[in-house]
């Protein structure tokens, strides 16, 4: 089912947790909400679920305005970070709960409920554990039960709040791949929250980057990484270095020299140059480059993380060099030019 | 939830544990239990055995004692049941809502623990007597509260309330709000969430609270005798009979009644513990 979040705002006792957020989610899409702690990811997810009411704006399920529907009526599946399983019920009872409590007119036959639950157990690779209680399962197994329970009601949309947050790195990786697999097989529209960018970039069809209650950018993993639209996104996704520069007549200046980068579409004035530390080329001599003295160089595996003191103000900037580049440095001097970069005017 | 937290494992002498001192603590526990609880209880048995079978039997089958035991048992049971309902409600309000005066109410729950029971008894009698603040409204309806079993129940409800509240409250605090939200996302109404998710999860704690409240009520003396009226066969409780035998210096009879009460209380508490052990095995709690 398609989802549309339209100009939603959410305040907690005057504290704005979300400011005017809009988002379209396509049917069958796997979408990640990514952002630092406190950026409003959980709040947005809970608003979609109906566990919170928006202060303003609406949420559409398909063409229908669901803003005033209760959680119960939205028919969503929600997976919590800490599983939230019913501990006095077996795995099977947990999974079938949503079906068993339905009114008799909407409730499938007993045998059918059981069949469906066992099928789901098979899907989440827990066949044979249906008689266990949650306390008798590992964290990863519990989370898979939670997912099966959420899917049992055939929800319009699956919402997952840091589903793998409480698990160790190895299990996370496994479950990540497995979630992608399940999504491809079942085709549920799925929204999941994470603050692990690797998880978001690897798993999601599209990533929503959030910061301070705003959506900064929505795009595929490539778009987010290669064409970040704001300094925040550039800094948040992957490694980045930045340098305060000045734009004059479409040329980028650093102090009293041009650095060999054109910026013809930007207005004159101060700006910040962002680039990836490894995405640079060393230059011979310096007619248009960034030049400076190496202050520290730490080697981590095949990469030299090198701190460069540039310009008169002794600004520090970090670049990553490979073995050849590192060997080519003479007398601690370095001159380079970023290959790919973004310039954001300072305002 | 001391009762419910015991290990659900089958009997094993010693479980691997990071905390040393198993032998020492077990030894101390046994010594302490013996000195404080078991030796006096054994004394009770020996003392009452000294009176001989015949005397014991005629005492046990005494109509007045049987009536008193029946009053004690039924009022305690009733008070404990009432407290299960209202104690859980009080705990719920204290855990779930933030309102002005919450801390005061929270502290007030413990008052029956601290108040000398005789004071409570006298105060309750004054209130529920035919001309008391509350009693006067029941008088015209033909309902007598003080000096009847109803009065006994009220006194017992008063003294045993904290047991239910204080056993249920911490467990309730641990219930994750997420669990309720999970139920709601699966389509459960408020009602279904409470009765199919929350209360079943609390059942072991509620059962423990019930057992404690019942135990306390069954042996209660101080607060009851003032309000009970102590009419033989009607509102006379078993502990009062013990007291009367003591005043007559008839110690064997007093200890014999004590022993009978002990057997009854013990069987109730034991069966509750067995239910809990069973539910633990079934639900895998506490592991
Ligand atoms: N119930 C609430 N009452 C008051 N403030 C809240 C409430 N829930 C969230 N907030 C605030 O709203 C902001 C966004 O919170 P939210 O939980 O959505 O962040 P998040 O992106 O999920 O962070 P995290 O990665 O740490 O889970 C935070 O500043 C938080 O303090
Ligand atoms: Mg969160």
Walk me through this protein's architecture.
The complex is a heterodimer of chains A (347) and B (287). Helices cover 27% and strands 36% of the residues of chain A. Chain A has 10 helices and 20 strands. In chain A, the strands form 4 sheets. In chain A, strands 6-7-8-3-9-10 form a 6-stranded mixed sheet, with helices on both faces. In chain A, strands 13-12-11-14-20 form a 5-stranded antiparallel sheet. The model of chain A has no long low-confidence stretch (mean pLDDT 90). Chain B is globular. The complex binds adenosine-5'-triphosphate and magnesium ion (MG). Adenosine-5'-triphosphate is lined by residues 12, 15, 17, 35, 37-43, 195 of chain A.
- What's the oligomerization state? heterodimer
Distance between the termini of chain A: 41 Å
Q: Give the CA-based shape of chain B.
A: globular
User: What is the count of DSSP helices of chain A, taking H or I runs of 4+ residues?
Assistant: 10
List keywords for this structure.
heterodimer, A: about 350 residues, alpha+beta, Rossmann fold, OB fold (Dihydrolipoamide Acetyltransferase, E2P), 2 domains, six-stranded mixed beta sheet, five-stranded antiparallel beta sheet, B: about 290 residues, mainly alpha, MetI-like fold, about 75% helix, binds adenosine-5'-triphosphate, binds magnesium ion, AAA+_ATPase (chain A)
What is the strand and helix layout of this fold?
The complex is a heterodimer of chains A (347) and B (287).
Chain A lengths: L2 E10 L2 E11 L4 E5 L6 H9 L6 E6 L2 E2 L5 H4 L1 E4 L11 H10 L9 H14 L15 H14 L4 E5 L7 H18 L2 E6 L2 H7 L2 E6 L2 E6 L1 H6 L4 H6 L4 E8 L2 E4 L2 E6 L6 E7 L4 E3 L7 E11 L2 E8 L4 E7 L1 H6 L4 E6 L2 E5 L2
Parallel strand pairs in A: 3-8, 3-9, 6-7, 7-8
Antiparallel strand pairs in A: 1-2, 1-4, 4-5, 9-10, 11-12, 11-14, 12-13, 14-20, 15-19, 16-17, 16-19, 17-18
Helix pairs in contact in A: 3-4, 3-5, 4-5
Chain B lengths: L21 H28 L3 H8 L2 H34 L5 H7 L2 H4 L2 H12 L6 H4 L10 H26 L2 H9 L4 H30 L2 H7 L9 H10 L3 H33 L4
Bound molecules: adenosine-5'-triphosphate and magnesium ion.
